[in-house]
Design a protein that fits this description.
With 227 residues, this protein is α+β, with helices and mostly antiparallel strands. It has one domain (3-216): Jelly Rolls, CATH 2.60.120.590. Helix content is 16%, strand content 29%. It contains 4 helices and 13 strands. The strands form 3 sheets. It has a 7-stranded antiparallel beta sheet with strand order 1-2-11-8-13-6-3, covered by helices on one side. A 4-stranded antiparallel beta sheet has the order 7-12-9-10, with no helix packed on it. A hairpin with a 2-residue loop joins strand 4 (74-78) and strand 5 (81-85). It starts with 6 loop residues before the first helix and ends in an 11-residue tail after the last strand. The relative contact order is 0.21. It binds succinic acid (SIN) and fe (ii) ion. Fe (ii) ion binds at residues 137, 139, 193. Succinic acid is lined by residues 124, 126, 134, 151, 153, 160, 193, 195, 212, 214.
Length: 227
């Protein structure tokens, strides 16, 4: 896999998975080889069509993270609630397509995390600037809760919070670096998780930002959606 040019990356991808809880694993550096500048260029391309926006929660609070989506469905929040939509409410168009190699990367990560046959139809793209955070929450708007969540972190390091099935359960704090992947499903599918406020920093590939891609099986495809 071209590891000669990147002996340091090769070491990272050989780091074994870390068990967080039953059904949840961190795959350190799993996406590092794939990322280079490529995922980041594709993110920029997606943002040209469906720009990041700070969504408003049903309770009326503006989220600190900038969000967009690609794939058949995108996660949206507004005063009427959280849901998946096939249309970007800003562009009025379908969300940009999910690049094929993103899908393959997510499927490989899911398999290493213990989940075969993952067919994500939604990818939420989060952009964190300094101070942006995500409070403890469950990912529960997806139609298929038997499918895992696959989360890829890029750019600045962040502290990921991963707890149990109750909001009040103790949570672990895990440093997520560029290229780290977290997979959670099965008994941990509805685990509460979040992200601590992003410290200021500068990353050689992403500057002042952290990006996170989360892949989900969100909905049931309509025949007219095509492939
Ligand atoms: C999320 O829960 O949607 C994002 C998690 C992360 O940014 O690591
Ligand atoms: Fe989440």
């Amino acid at each position: 896999m071209g590891s000669n040019e990147h002996p340091d990356l090769f070491d990272t991808v050989n780091t074994p998975p870390i068990e967080l809880t039953a059904g949840a694993r961190v795959l350190p550096g799993f996406a590092t080889q794939a990322v280079g500048n490529l995922l980041l260029l594709e993110i920029e391309e997606i943002f040209r069509q469906s720009p990041t926006r700070q969504m408003v929660t049903p309770g009326g609070r503006k989220m600190s993270v900038g969000m967009s989506n690609c794939g058949h469905f995108g996660w949206v929040s507004d005063s009427s609630g959280y849901r998946y939509s096939p249309i970007d409410p800003i562009s009025g168009l379908p969300w940009p397509a999910m690049p094929k190699h993103w899908l393959e990367l997510a499927q490989e990560a899911a398999a290493v995390g213990g989940y075969d046959d993952f067919i994500p139809d939604a990818c939420l793209i989060n952009r964190y600037a300094v101070g942006a955070r995500m409070g403890l929450h469950q990912d529960r708007d997806e139609r298929n809760l038997n499918a895992p969540i696959v989360s890829i972190s890029l750019g600045l390091e962040a502290t990921f919070l991963f707890g149990g099935l109750k909001r009040s359960d103790r949570y672990r704090r895990i440093r997520l670096r560029h290229g780290d992947v977290v997979v959670w499903g099965g008994p941990s599918r509805l685990a509460f998780h979040g992200v601590a406020p992003l410290p200021a920093g500068s990353h050689p590939l992403t500057g002042p930002y952290r990006y996170n891609l989360t892949f989900r099986e969100a909905g049931v495809r309509q025949p007219e959606d095509g492939e």
